[in-house]
Predict the structure.
Amino acid sequence: MSLQAWVAIADELAYILAGALFTIGIIRLGRVKSARSGNTLATWGMALAIAATVTWLLVFKRWTAESVMWALASGGLGSGLGWWMAARVPMTAMPEFVAFFNGLGGLASMLVGMAEIPKLAQATRGMFASRLTLARFGGADFAIADSLAIVVGAVTFSGSMIAYAKLAGKLHKNRFGVLGSLPVNAGLGLLCVLFAVWGGFIAHDPASLFLSNWGLTALALVLGVGLTMPIGGADMPVAIALLNSYSGIAGMTTGFILQNNLLIVGGSLVGASGIILTQVMCKAMNRSLTNVLIGGLQADTGGKKDEGYTKVKSTSAEEVAPLLDAASSVIIVPGYGLAVAQAQHKVRELATLLEKKGVLVRYAIHPVAGRMPGHMNILLAEADVPFEQLLELDRINDDFKNTDVVLILGANDVCNPAATNDPASPIAGMPVLKVWEARTVVVVKRSLAAGYAGIRNELFQLDNSLMLLADAKKALEDLVSELKAL
């Protein structure tokens, strides 16, 4: 066999192995102990896929020397930037970091879809006079895949950038004028369909093809903004999961355009897992996906609503320490405040101290605590908190009524009684941790400001609640010192 035949066989085998590594990696992400190795396996799978693709392009002479230089330069720059960003991003910024990377995946797919039009024009040269359309050139499946890559990729990119801005606290609006309303979004979606049909099956000259290409891209980018803007703060974890699925679907359609089996497999894996995660998140928050997409939580995410509290009981570490010392059971509820303060090691130190005193210590983990699924688990795993002590909402909720002290560290919306007793509340029906059923609730917060959903929390005024207004790390340090002194 020729060299090219051997390379073609090796290339397909490498793609199969890379796809297997992706699959095994996702499976291993399902457990804390194997998650790190799963991520490593998937990384090696991607490295193998890139190497196989570059080898194929070189052997089959699809690249010029100039193309190789551009590929090496861009690949090196992208790898360097990715490494630098991942190494320096704090865990508190991980939700917006994930949203940002989802957007980049969508952008890549969008650009590939857009590039096919000028590529077609160059390949056919004077053939447009024969009314050659995109569908006639590459087939109906090619025309549909190209339009989907542009639309889904553009929606993913612009929507993820809006999600990033909201999660990073840089955007607090639910509307840009009329953009974001349901009729406008529906109109934009219809226009995208019309432009896709025109560009794929009707346009037959270069001017029409380029106009349909850029028009479809612009409309899809605006649609992504309109779809994401209305989504309220407390629904944003669902939006991240959905955008992650979009990025996979966009990658899959790009695989059909480029006739690359690995892109199809990898994109399908991401798309399917993202949809499953979205369904899990919707179930955890007792919300429908339709409700999320049309902006079910139209809350102001400014986080400034701290007025109106009349009977808050403030406390101090000196007063809380004896309560913890006398308790037989303590449940710790970690939230975004814990992440911001980077207090995971201090909470582990406090828990260890309590355990030495014979106190039963457990952690109540809400599905959206920390603004992203698994955020709290990762933070606490950094501090070597035993995985067996991390109990999800459905496993821990019935235990609060038998608990002496609940220590809430920066969590707000996930402990708000309004979800269960106020039908008019924006978070009505959302499953929350029933911390108020414990004998004593100690809430550690820097202020009485509203949480990410932008609403008041009546927990702060209940008779069995005490407010320790302090940074989570400082409060924990003081509690550890006071407990050691007892």
